[in-house]
Amino acid sequence: MASTSSAYDFSLFEAKAERSSLAAAPAPKAAPKKKKSNVIQLSEQQLRRSHRHGAHSLRTMLNLGFVLVLVGAIGAIVFSQVQLTELTDQINTTTQALSEQKSLSVQLEMLAASQMNTDEVETYARERLGMEKVSEGQVSYISLAQDDAGTVVQADTRPNFFEDIWASILSIFS
Known about the structure:
By secondary structure, the protein is an all-alpha fold. Helix content is 57%, strand content 0%.
């Protein structure tokens, strides 16, 4: 089954028997190559060195510990910076709110001062509330004797609410 295609040689894919009949001259056979051995020869010292896993595992554990400490330190630094940024933002927001409240307080004090002078208060009291200024006949003074004093006849002996709570806590632990 030979192909007439000049671009591809399909005869390489045909069975061996067919190819041998198609080929006019047999190809010369090459001498068989000697295979290289895969066995590696190690000296006694190299053999002992290859069995020392303890030194490598100790170094690996130390490296791993160092990396973990380094990552932990970097994580702690990043975490503290994030907290610092959040607290700074909170402080700035609170400071701004405080300054706004102070400004509002000043405005309200000025408004109250402008509306509450004494002449306006007297006018409001006289016209709206029907009040008058105090005359000398309306004032009377009372003097008390110095020996007058009040005494408690009977003290309150029942404990208050907090003393009851404290006593119940002490009774639980005793």
